[in-house]
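Task 17 of the worksheet. Students: predict the tertiary structure of the chain below and write it out as C-alpha cells. Keep your answer in the requested format; marks are given for formatting as well as content.
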Amino acid sequence: MKCLAAVSLAVSCQVAQAGVIVQATAISASHPDFGGSYALVNQINQSGLSAGYVAGVTDFDSFVASTTHNGALALNSGFSVGPFGSFSYDLGAVYNIDAIGLWATANTGSVLNFNLYADSDNDFSNGNSGLLGGFTALGSNYTTADPGQAFTFGDVSTRYVHMEILTTDGGAQPGLGEVVFRTATVVPEPEPLALFAAGLIPVCLRLRRKA
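Model answer:
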C-alpha cells in the first residue's frame, strides 16, 4: 500500500492547482507588433500592474478583482498595427482553462468586443480553431488604475488561445494592458517522474503477491 501511495503521489505532482493564474509565455498577432514602448509582450509581462503574481500559484479570481493596471504610461501596454485582426497567446503547455482576465489600456485602441478561440497548432488561419465565446470588455477609464475584468467559458484543454478583435474604443491600433488565464488542471505529459511512477506499479503488485 505504501508503494502504491508513492505512485499516486508521484503522478499527482504533475497536476497543477485549480483556479490559479496561467501566464502566456509568448504573444503574436495577425498584424505586425507595434514595437518599441508598445510591444505586444507588454500584455503578458506584468508591466503596469499594481501588484505582481506568481504563475501557477496566485489565485486568479482574487488577483483580477483586486489588481489595477496603469496604462497611461508607455511600456505598460501592448499593441499591434491595425486593422484589428487577432492576438494569439501561447501558454507554453497544454492547460485546462476556463477564464481569461484582462486589463484595458488608457491608450486609444483598447479592445472592446472580441471572440476567443482555442487552438492546437497556433495557426488561426487554417480553420481548426474552436470558438470559446464572444465577449464585451470595458474600455479604459483613462486613469492610472484600470480594473481587471474576468470572462469565463467552458473548460477546454489547449495550449494556444486566439483573441479575434471585433471592435476597440476608437483607435485603429488594437491593444490591451495585460492578459492572464485561469486553469483548473494542467494536462499531464509523460514526464520522467510520471514514467517512473508508472514503472513502480508492477513492482508493487509483485511484492504484494509475495507478501
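Marker's comment: Strands lie at 20-22, 26-29, 68-69, 78-79, 86-103, 113-119, 130-136, 146-165, 175-176, 178-186. The chain is about 20% helix and 35% strand.
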